[in-house]
Structure formats: C-alpha cells, structure tokens
Design goal:
The structure is a single chain. This protein has 592 residues and is of the alpha+beta class. 34% of the residues lie in helices and 14% in strands. It has helices at 12-24, 42-47, 66-74, 87-116, 123-143, 157-172, 176-179, 183-193, 196-202, 252-268, 301-308, 315-323, 329-339, 361-374, 411-416, 433-443, 447-452; strands at 3-6, 28-29, 55-58, 61-64, 345-352, 382-389, 398-406, 423-427, 457-458, 461-469, 479-480, 499-506, 522-527, 543-548, 551-554, 581-584. The strands form 3 sheets. The chain has a 6-stranded antiparallel beta sheet, sandwiched between helices. The protein has a 6-stranded antiparallel beta sheet with strand order 11-12-13-14-15-16, with no helix packed on it. The protein has a 4-stranded mixed beta sheet with strand order 2-1-3-4, with helices on one face. Strand 1 (3-6), helix 1 (12-24) and strand 2 form a beta-alpha-beta unit. The protein is elongated, with a radius of gyration of 41 Å. It starts with a strand and ends in an 8-residue tail after the last strand.
Length: 592
C-alpha cells in the first residue's frame, strides 16, 4: 500500500506517525515539503481544508490531524497490538492520547514556541505553561510508579504519542533540576526513545544540560502555590506595615501632627456650593414582569391540513367499509371510488430497495410487521396493505405494498417512520382505469383462500405474508390459524392446520389481571379439533395462549422434563410451556 506523509522537516507531530509505521513495518514516503508554499496549493487544500500538516495520502483518500493519522497507522496491523491487546486497552490508549493533547502538549508548546521564535515571549504565559507541564508530569510520575509502560506490558501508541510530545522539551527546556522530581517519567522516557523504532525516526535524544531561554528573556520560575489565608480576625506577618516604621501603633506626637494637618486642610478648603433644592421624586414601583405566554402545543401537520383544507373523505369511514366488506371487494372498491377525494388524499405503491437481502421468510415478514408498527403515529391519515411474495429457497422474497395517505406525498410517513427511506415510492394515477385496477389488485386479496391455507397470488407471485395497516380494532373473535405457513418461525411442532377461536377470556390461573409471570397476556384459545384441557387451569376444550409480537402462541402440553434438553426460548409459550402452534394475525392492530 502506497502511503505518503506531507509535513515539514522535524515536525514533532509527525514523529508518532512515523514511529508507529516503524513498529508496523510500513513504508511511508515523506517528500520534500515547504510551508507557506506547498500547503497553499489547490491540490494540498483539497486534502487538508485548513492547509495544516501532517497529511497522509492513502489509496482511499487523504487523512488530516496527526492523532487520526497515528491511529490509522497503528490499526493497520493487529498482531503488533499498538492499539492495545484488548478492547479495554484500546480505550486506555485513547485516554492517554487525549491526555497528551489537552494536558501536556498544549502547555509544552506554549513554553517552547517563544524559545524557538514561533511566538513572542510573555513571562506570565511562560510561568503558567511551566506550572501546567509540572502538573502533567506529576500525573505521569504517579501513574508510572509501578508500571513500565502506559498501557499493558509493551509499547503502544499511547507511549509513542506522549514520548513524541516530550522530545523537544527534554532536549531544550527541562533542565536537570526540573527533571529531578520525575524519576519514573525519565526512566520510562529513556526506555522509549532508545528503542530502535524511535531512534530510526528521531535519532539520539540528548537531554538538556540547562534550560534554553527565549531571546531577550530570563529564566522564569514556576509560580509557588498560594499561601494559606490568615485566620479571620488575626493579622498575618505578611501584611503591609503601618506608619512609624512598621513597629505597630504611631506615637502620640505623630497622631497630634496628623490631626493638625487635617484641621489646616479643612480650614483652607473652599466653601461647597449649595445645590438648588429639587423636588423629591417619588419612587415608582417596578412593574411586575409580564408573564411569558404559555408555549403553544405543536399541531401535527396532517391535523393542521385537516383544519386548513378539510377533505370530503374521512379515512376512518373507508377503513370501516374495508373491514366489513366480508370479501365483497368489488362492491367495496366501488364505494371507495365514490368517496375518494384525490385533492385531499393520494395513493402510492412501495417496493423494497434491497429484496436481494431477503433470505428467510419469517425475517422478511417481521420487516413488514415492524414497518406497520412504526407507522402508527399517522394511523388516522394512513391506510395500506403490504405483501411478502415468493417462496423461501425457491423464488426471491420481495416486499411490496400500496398505501393511501392524507396529502399528496409521503413526507409525513417519512417523518414518522425512518424505514420509509428503504422503499421506492411511486404515486398512482387514479384518473386512469389501469391505476384504479392496480389499487384494487393490491388491496383486494381472497381472504377466504388465505385463511384456509390455499395459495393466493400478487402480480403472478405466490403470497407468503400479508399485513394490513388500518384502524386499531378490538381483538376479533374469529381468526384463522396458519400453522404450516409459519413453521419457518421455529414455533410449530407439526400441529394440524385448523380453525381457532379466541374468546378473549383470561386464563383464571394466568396471574393478576390475566397476565402470566412474564407479564404476558394469557387467554384461552379453542381449537376446532382440540379435546385437551388447559394444563394451566384445567378448563375443558381450550389451550392457553399468549401474545408475542404480531402472533398468538398457544400450547397443548406442559414443559419438557428437566432431563430433556429444553427448546429454545422462542419456542416457549407460557412460563415453561412448549409452543405447538402459532396464530398468525393478518394485522398487528388486531391484537391491540
């Protein structure tokens, strides 16, 4: 991999990048680079918007900021463990890199730059920088008291970064007296910079024999900590002396002299001019601050549309007609087109963008169920039907649907449901016979065939799953169980397909308010061919069932003995009961 690093010579911010490359065995080309010229070219500014260095050019593009580049280079090989041997150690490496940037490097450069002429000398700023460097080195000293390296038991990017930031301060600023309180830091620093990977980049580091002073500057000591305040009501030794040589109370002669001088000044002072009397102004009471108006409750855009441009069509009326048509879709659609208001509503078809990723039928069905659930915010202004077509392992599984929405676009649905973005949406031209026929084909499927288990087709493809998005309705008392169609979920154990009636009665032993130990709603389901009793409460001819997502699980037998391997958690119906079937709900709303 060809890597090129753009930087000026001897840039300490490039040291960590090149040292990390040495450890990882990477060749990085460093071409000749001239600041204030090469960094202002359009080609360079395209790589580094601010014109700063270093910049790393890679086959994928350019990287700027020295820490980001160093992390990139360190992560290019995992076996060297420059970024830590574990995920936690990687976090420790990041901690020390941030510590170096904010606590050590900034203070050291503010001390160093006046010395090398990068910025004007300021005694106060230099003293503050020395204090900050001392605090950072004290932190390192305490941390390294029982450690060889900053992270783990080998050199990592943390050691490389911190040591690189200390190279110039150690060579120019830190005198032997300044280094003396930090033996652990010096032991660690010397260990790092004498590694062959370090010396290949920075050469030999000769420690400063004395502090290098800035031009026309003098050595500035770090500010001493502030003295403790004297106790209240007592005079400290450092207070300013009083008159009389600071020996305490003035003598009587001095007091008499000061009084005579004061009397003389008062006698010779010019008379004060009297100001004309002015009427006293009555104080006006400050007016009470006006109470801020209560924030108005934000109105949903579709509700505002109902108020501003009411439609002749009411969505809930159509949903009621659709739900009660009992298979007479021809009459249902005739009534729909009579009430449809194209100015206030629009119809759109949707196609999933990534059908090639649909591999398992139950996961694809769950995707449509999740889409329906997440669209509940605008349920009042939305209606639609979604399909999964195809057969797992035989023909591609594809998701499609047809929705009617208040307004002329799908923006309200996009705001309510992020999943809208993974579908292609096309507005249906309802003024043409073809458009009307397509809507009828998408919305009107043979529910009797579907409930009985017979195959139905959409656009010539076998339907695997159907979801309706309509008004939230009570639990129906007559629903069809589709055992074979749901075996792919891993819940069925070969129970015969048949009719199932859910009367909604809570199991008497299902816990408080009809809920089991896991908080699930437990009801009785009655199978057409069932003769068993509820093994929970022994009610005759029924089986216990509970809600799980958009399905109703029921069981006819208790849990397996503990000596037998227990089935997966998803196959549990109640608290320990094995699920032998699943009632597939055509609309998730039917469970609410």
């Amino acid at each position: 991999m060809a890597l090129t690093l753009y930087t000026y010579p001897a840039n300490y911010r490039a040291f960590k990048i090149l040292i990390a490359a040495e450890y990882n065995g990477l060749d990085i080309e460093v071409p000749k680079f001239e600041m204030m010229k090469d960094n202002q070219s359009p080609e360079f500014l395209a790589m580094s918007p601010l014109g700063k260095v270093p910049v790393l050019k890679t086959p994928q593009g350019a990287l700027f900021e020295s820490n980001a580049i160093a992390r990139y280079v360190a992560r290019m090989r995992r076996d060297t463990e420059l970024y830590g041997a574990t995920f936690f150690e990687s976090g420790q490496v990041d901690s020390w890199i941030d510590f170096c940037s904010h606590e050590l490097e900034l203070a050291a450069t503010m001390w160093l730059y006046p010395v090398i002429g990068y910025m004007p000398y300021n005694a106060a700023a230099t003293a503050k920088s020395k204090n900050d460097v001392t605090v950072a080195l004290t932190t390192l000293e305490n941390y390294l008291s029982d450690k060889t390296y900053l992270v783990g038991h080998k050199i990592t990017l943390a050691d490389i970064t911190v040591a690189s930031a200390l190279v110039y301060p150690m060579k120019l600023l830190f005198s032997p007296e300044f280094r003396a309180p930090f033996p652990n830091v010096m032991r660690w620093f010397n260990t790092c910079v004498n590694q062959p990977q370090f010396t290949a980049v920075i050469g030999e580091v000769v420690l400063a024999a004395a502090e290098t002073l800035p031009p026309n500057g003098t050595a500035v000591a770090a500010a001493a900590p502030a003295a403790a305040a004297a106790p209240a009501g007592k005079k400290g030794k450092g207070q300013a002396p009083t008159k009389g040589g600071g020996k305490g109370k003035p003598s009587p002669e001095e007091i008499a002299k000061m009084k005579a001088e004061a009397a003389e000044r008062k006698k010779n002072a010019p008379p004060k001019e009297k100001k004309p009397d002015q009427p006293k102004k009555k104080k006006e009471k400050a007016a009470a601050p006006a109470t801020a108006p209560a924030p108005k409750k934000e109105v949903h855009p579709l509700k505002a549309l109902d108020n501003d441009a009411p439609s002749t069509m009411v969505g809930d009326v159509w949903k009621k007609v659709y739900s009660n048509c009992k298979g007479d879709y021809e009459g249902c659609m005739k009534e729909f087109w009579e009430m449809y208001d194209p100015a206030g509503w629009s119809i759109h078809t949707c196609r999933f963008k990534f059908n090639e990723e649909n591999e398992q039928a139950f996961m694809t069905a769950n995707a449509t169920g999740g889409f329906v659930q997440r669209s509940g915010e605008i349920r009042k202004w939305l209606f639609g039907v979604m399909y999964v077509t195809g057969t797992e392992g035989t023909t591609p599984l594809e998701i499609s649907g047809c929705y009617m929405i208040r307004g002329q676009d799908m923006e309200p649905l996009q705001v309510a449901n992020d999943d809208t973005a993974v579908y292609h949406w096309n507005k249906v031209d309802t003024t043409t016979p073809e458009g009307k026929a397509h809507v009828a084909h998408m919305w009107c499927y043979d529910i009797e065939k579907w409930n009985s288990g017979e195959p139905i087709f959409l656009e010539g493809k076998a339907v695997n799953d159907v979801k309706q998005f309509k008004k939230r309705t009570p639990l129906r008392t007559d629903m069809a169980w589709r055992g074979p169609a749901r075996r792919d979920v891993g819940l069925g154990h070969g129970a015969a397909c048949g009719r199932i009636w859910v009367d909604g009665a809570f199991c008497s032993q299902g816990g408080q308010a009809g809920r089991g130990a896991r908080g699930r709603r437990v009801v009785h389901a009655r199978l057409g061919s069932a003769s068993a009793n509820c093994f929970v409460c022994q009610a005759p001819g029924v089986v216990p069932a509970h809600f799980l997502g958009s399905s109703l699980l029921f069981s006819q037998q208790p849990a397996r003995p503990r000596s037998t391997p227990a089935p997966r958690a998803r196959r549990r119906a109640l608290d320990g009961a094995v699920a032998v079937g699943v009632l597939h709900i055509l609309s998730y709303a039917d469970l609410l």
